[in-house]
Structure to design on (459 residues):
């Protein structure tokens, strides 16, 4: 799955955590936590939800690089298990 | 005959509206069972009972607003027979189906009560499957979306009013003193990173869990910070029921308790915190969590605040604040280095403790955070 294909699915998980989020107001390339009210519990729950949905284990050491929606989608796209 | 009364649900709540009974006459209840759901300005609170018995009579109809202390039901104590003057015999009605309670937003629960809909039986379409007003109204065949707006606005206004009352009372009655200490966090951060590297995602800990546990353990030596001030006298608490300030997405906050925090393992405390945050935001808390925090912790570092000097939540006598954990200049062995630190603060009631004690508490807290493996 490409990052572009992943985007709506990732956003859907984010919306479950932050229902007030207006997708149209998200600025590309900017850290999500600068734009959406997400505390560390929300963030952890978001990453757990991504793991559950896409089967990608995300080590904590990678969290820092996953700040924007684009980076998250690219990260997942590179790691989603391919159907055998 | 046991009289079950509406318990206090926090200093800023003196009444509540009964939304539903979770029991019927004839039902056996045991200590800790949820028997009713009461709507307050802050949440739809699941009211627990603290005695074993059999429900005899329900004295309050759903939809009724009652004051704290009002008798809500009568129960027969274990072994007690219905008296001649008595309680109505159990009607043998079918119990509601057993099952896990659904997350239902407070406004949705309120609307469900108005429309006579069983919110727990609906399939939710909200966050994490929560039942929303739209779900309730859809089920009742009365989809009136605009009605949701005043409900939510009422909740927000009610919560603001409750916070205003509690905080005004605090500032009027409690002579606060304030202290702060910068605590090095390198050991805690390294320990946490090492511990989380070995854990599956769903089992990872947040720094907040370490901070909460450190507060709970440090309080063991400071009974004058953990308790309540009622009717002109201080009552130290036997356990640490740690109130956690949780912001609500729509605005406002609640500070329900993680009970017996001092005796929870870090994993248990983390799970309790995650559960509490989830339920606080879904508007589904329990009466014991609302009524008996013995001290509160607030963490405003998430929003970037360097430190917070918080207002004590009466009748408690202290509140601990944490700011952001970040790399800052720190003197280590005579040299200035960049190190992760956090500013911890204490606001405490001068009627009960003095600054000397408060400073010793912050030092003890700092000490606990230097030994994360012992938390």
């Amino acid at each position: 799955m490409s990052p572009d294909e992943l985007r709506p699915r990732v956003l859907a998980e984010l919306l479950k955590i932050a229902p007030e989020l207006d997708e149209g107001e998200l600025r590309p390339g900017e850290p999500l936590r600068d734009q959406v009210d997400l505390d560390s519990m929300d963030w952890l729950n978001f990453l757990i939800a991504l793991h559950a949905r896409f089967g990608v284990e995300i080590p904590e050491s990678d969290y820092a690089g996953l700040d924007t929606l684009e980076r998250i989608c690219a990260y997942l796209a590179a790691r989603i298990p391919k159907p055998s | 005959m046991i009289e079950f009364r509406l318990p206090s649900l926090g200093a800023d709540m003196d009444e509540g509206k009964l939304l539903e009974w979770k029991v019927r006459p004839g039902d056996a209840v045991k200590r800790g069972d949820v028997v009713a759901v009461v709507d307050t300005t802050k949440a739809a609170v699941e009211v627990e009972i603290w005695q074993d018995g059999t429900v005899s009579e329900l004295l309050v109809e759903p939809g009724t607003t009652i004051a704290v202390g009002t008798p809500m039901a009568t129960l027969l104590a274990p072994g007690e027979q219905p008296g001649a003057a008595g309680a109505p015999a159990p009607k043998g009605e079918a119990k509601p189906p057993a099952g896990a309670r659904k997350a239902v937003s407070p406004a949705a629960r309120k609307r469900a009560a108005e429309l006579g809909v069983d919110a727990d039986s609906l399939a939710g379409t909200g966050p994490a499957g929560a039942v929303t007003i739209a779900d309730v109204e859809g089920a009742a065949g009365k989809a009136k979306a605009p009605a949701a707006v005043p409900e939510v606005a009422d909740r927000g206004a009610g919560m603001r009013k409750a916070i205003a009352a509690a905080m005004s009372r605090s500032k009027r009655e409690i002579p606060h003193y304030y202290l702060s200490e910068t605590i090095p966090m390198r050991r805690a951060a390294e320990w946490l990173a090492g511990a989380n590297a070995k854990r599956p995602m769903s089992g990872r800990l947040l720094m907040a869990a370490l901070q909460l546990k450190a507060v709970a353990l440090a309080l063991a030596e400071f009974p004058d910070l953990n308790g309540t001030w009622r009717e002109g006298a201080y009552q130290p608490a036997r356990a640490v029921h740690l109130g956690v300030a949780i912001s609500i997405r729509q605005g406002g906050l609640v500070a329900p308790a993680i009970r017996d925090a001092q005796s929870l393992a870090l994993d248990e405390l983390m799970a309790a915190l995650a559960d509490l945050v989830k339920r606080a935001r879904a508007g589904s808390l329990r009466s014991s969590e609302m009524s008996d925090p013995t001290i509160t912790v607030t963490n405003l570092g998430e929003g970037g605040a360097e430190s917070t000097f918080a207002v004590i939540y009466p009748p408690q006598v202290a509140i601990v604040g944490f700011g952001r954990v970040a790399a800052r200049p720190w003197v280590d062995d005579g040299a200035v280095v960049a190190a992760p630190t956090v500013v911890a603060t204490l606001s405490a009631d001068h009627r009960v403790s003095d600054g000397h004690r408060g400073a010793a508490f912050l030092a003890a807290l700092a000490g606990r955070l230097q030994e994360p493996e012992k938390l």
